[in-house]
Structures are given as structure tokens and as C-alpha cells.
């Protein structure tokens, strides 16, 4: 027969075994102004200035320090002048920093149709839907987009066209912030092909392909 005091001991031990879990539950749910017990600090809690706080250590009292002059974000060094700025040895690059294939040309045509054709037109004569609408309104504030087939524009090297897309020129806004570097070069390649297509003679076509072109 189990004695009565043995039962009470077992009950007490059972209750005590639940006590750690109760304390853990309380610590996780209760609100307190004191920090919780941090057995391994790992430098999680340390003295520091928060955003917008005053820091008398510096003459401008700013806790948030501006980057040192010349600082470049990781992955944004952009050392390749040809790729990122269209320049080689201080001059506008005449070629492309990448291989131009059908995939690049198709991408360039797609990006051109989206970003350029509203003003310059699908064929590049400055007669896009936006330009036609502005001409119809006749408000006198619209500047006609440049044709891409003038002697001046056709004489410009690829790097100059890339820079124009990136930074804009005269009344044309910049597109560098919305069109990636690779897509800007793809558009440049397509514009070059578009210029050739509108200003080419049959003699410019390889002899074995002339018959096919003439039939079309």
C-alpha cells in the first residue's frame, strides 16, 4: 500500500517540474521595462546612436555620417568606360562592348518600341504617336523629336547614341534610370540597324541575298 506522504511528494515533484515551463511562458508573454536575461550577449545590446540623434562628437552634430567622398557602393564601381559610359580612350566608342546577335537585336527592338517609338516613331522619323498628338494640338510648346535618319545623327558613333539614351540630350529626357545598361546597348544596336535599313542601297546587301530582298 502506497503511503499518503509518498503521494504528496509525487504531486509536489510534478508541480515543481512544471515550474520552469511556467517561468518561460511568463518571460515570453509578460511586458516589462527591464531587458530580458541575455545569457550570451553577442554584442546585441550596446551603446549606440540611433537615426537622427544628435552626436556632439562631430562638428555638425550629426550621428548619421555621410559617406566619405569617393565612396562607391558594393557592386557599383562600373570601371568599364566602354560598357557603362560608351567611351574608349576618351572618345566615343565606335563599336559595342558585347556580341550583337539576333537575341540582342530583338531585345533592342522591343525596348525601342516601348521607350523610343512614342516620340521617334517606329521607323525613327520623329513621327511617333506622342509627336502626332502634339502637332494636332498646335499649342506651340512642343519641340519636334529628332529624326534618327539625318546625316548628323547617322554620323554619331555607337557610344554617343548610348550616352544620349543614358543622359538625354536637349529636349530628350534621360533613360538611364529606367533602362538597364544591357538594354541601352541593345537599343543602340537596333537604332544603328534601323538607320541602315532606311538608308541602304541594294548594293549594300550581299549578292546571294539580293534576289530575296527584291522579291519582298
From TrEMBL:
Is Heme found in the keyword set? yes
- One Pfam short name: Cytochrome_CBB3
Listed InterPro entries: Cyt_c-like_dom, Cyt_c-like_dom_sf
PROSITE patterns referenced in this protein's UniProt entry, alphabetically: CYTC
GO MF terms here are: electron transfer activity; heme binding; metal ion binding
Q: Which residues form the Cytochrome c domain?
A: 103-195
Kindly state which keywords UniProt assigns to this record, in alphabetical order: Heme, Iron, Metal-binding
Glycosyltransferase in keyword set? no
Protein name per the record: Cytochrome c
Give the originating organism: Candidatus Polarisedimenticola svalbardensis
Amino acid at each position: 500500500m502506497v503511503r499518503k506522504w509518498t503521494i504528496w511528494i509525487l504531486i509536489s515533484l510534478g508541480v515543481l517540474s512544471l515550474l520552469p515551463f511556467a517561468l518561460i511562458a511568463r518571460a515570453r508573454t509578460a511586458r516589462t521595462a527591464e531587458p530580458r536575461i541575455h545569457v550570451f550577449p553577442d554584442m546585441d545590446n550596446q551603446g549606440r546612436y540611433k537615426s537622427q540623434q544628435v552626436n556632439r562628437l562631430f562638428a555638425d552634430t550629426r550621428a548619421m555620417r555621410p559617406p566619405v567622398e569617393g565612396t562607391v557602393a558594393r557592386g557599383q564601381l562600373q570601371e568599364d568606360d566602354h560598357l557603362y559610359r560608351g567611351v574608349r580612350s576618351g572618345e566615343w566608342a565606335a563599336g559595342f562592348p558585347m556580341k550583337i546577335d539576333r537575341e540582342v537585336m530583338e531585345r533592342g527592338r522591343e525596348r525601342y518600341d516601348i521607350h523610343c517609338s512614342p516620340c521617334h516613331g517606329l521607323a525613327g522619323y520623329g513621327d511617333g504617336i506622342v509627336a502626332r498628338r502634339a502637332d494636332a494640338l498646335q499649342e506651340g510648346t512642343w519641340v519636334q523629336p529628332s529624326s534618327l535618319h539625318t546625316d548628323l545623327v547617322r554620323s554619331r558613333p555607337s557610344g554617343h547614341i548610348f550616352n544620349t539614351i543614358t543622359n538625354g540630350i536637349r529636349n530628350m529626357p534621360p533613360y538611364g534610370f529606367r533602362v538597364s545598361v544591357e538594354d541601352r546597348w541593345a537599343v543602340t544596336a537596333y537604332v544603328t540597324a534601323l538607320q541602315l535599313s532606311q538608308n541602304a542601297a541594294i548594293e549594300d546587301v550581299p549578292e546571294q541575298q539580293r534576289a530575296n530582298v527584291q522579291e519582298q
